Amino acid sequence: MSRPSSESTITVGNIALSFHRAVAAVTRRVLEAHGHRVNSVEAPHEQLFRLQEQGDIDVLVSAWLPSSHDKYLSRYRDQVRVLAPQYQPYCVWAVPPCIPVEIVREVGDLARPEVVGRTTTAIDGINPGAGISRFSARMVDEYGLGRVGYTFTPGTEAGFVSRVERGLATGEWFVIPLWRPQYLNRLHRLRPLEDPKGLLGTVDSASTVISLAALDRIHPDAVAGLDQLHLGNEGVEEIDALINVDGLSPLQAADRYLTGSGLGLPA
Asked: Is 176 helix (H, G, I), strand (E, B) or coil?
């Protein structure tokens, strides 16, 4: 495979969550296969988009469009190229399998007196810039959950994971703002609740975003390869599990996935 004459360094930025690191690692391998050196940057949701808007990031991984991240990308969308979707993410509220479906089937059921009396009403989330966090704060209000004691508090990824694992270990009744793809979906039988008000957004398309200013520095075959790369929710969750369950680094996990899946690197 020929290398671009400039052998230019490309800065890849990802949202500071594990599954975004997983996708960024595959993105890095595609760029490296076409002769590029890669610098990696990560930041919380809104900050990452601002970094690309300011010209500090060449390739952003990944924008969830339209529900979660369009409000961040729309400020400078005329300055970027949005590639084909790599996976189809969506947000949910979920409960552990110990909560019977006939008692809690949809979000509004959380307000039933017999449920409030048994359920931990403090709902923990990830950072406030995430779409799931914005949606969750609104849901507490619009489903009337705040009136019966529920609260939503953004937090860290580590705190979010710890909260899930602690609740499952003790048989606690709790609700957790979740999404696919996320490796916890592969480990636990967390059950999504119905959201009849549709406040959790749509099924998004998760796409790599390349700044137009960087396109002339990126090998055309690398751009084509990224445009053809489709991991799907299952693929992203598999890489995420390799990182968080098997203890691999993001690049090791990407390499194992690419080898084991037979996907290889797009030409």
From this structure: strand
Instruction: Identify the CATH number of the domain in which residue 130 sits.
Output: 3.40.190.100
- Taking CB atoms within 8 Å and a gap of at least 24, the contacts of 104-109 are 104/193, 105/193, 105/194, 106/193, 106/194, 106/195, 106/196, 107/139, 107/143, 107/145, 107/193, 107/194, 107/195, 107/196, 107/197, 108/143, 108/144, 108/196, 109/193
Residues 95 and 171 reside in one and the same domain: yes
What is the chain's Cα-based Rg? 20
Same domain (yes/no): 170, 238: no
**CATH at 222:** 3.40.190.10
Residue carrying structure tokens 């996907």: 263
Question: Does a structural domain hold residue 267?
Answer: no
Q: Are residues 81 and 94 in the same domain?
A: no
Q: With cut-offs at 50, 70 and 90, classify the pLDDT of residue 197.
A: very high
Position with higher pLDDT, 260 vs 69: 69
Residue 185 is which amino acid?
Answer: N
Residue 198 domain-assigned?
no
Torsion, CA 132, CA 64, CA 211, CA 29, rounded to 10? 100
**Chain segment 14-40, per-residue pLDDT in tens:** 999 999 999 999 999 999 999 999 999
pTM greater than 0.85 (yes/no):
yes
Domain count, the chain: 2
Residue 258 tokens read as: 């690419």
Distance CA 156, CA 125 (A): 7
β-strands 59-65, 205-211: how paired?
antiparallel
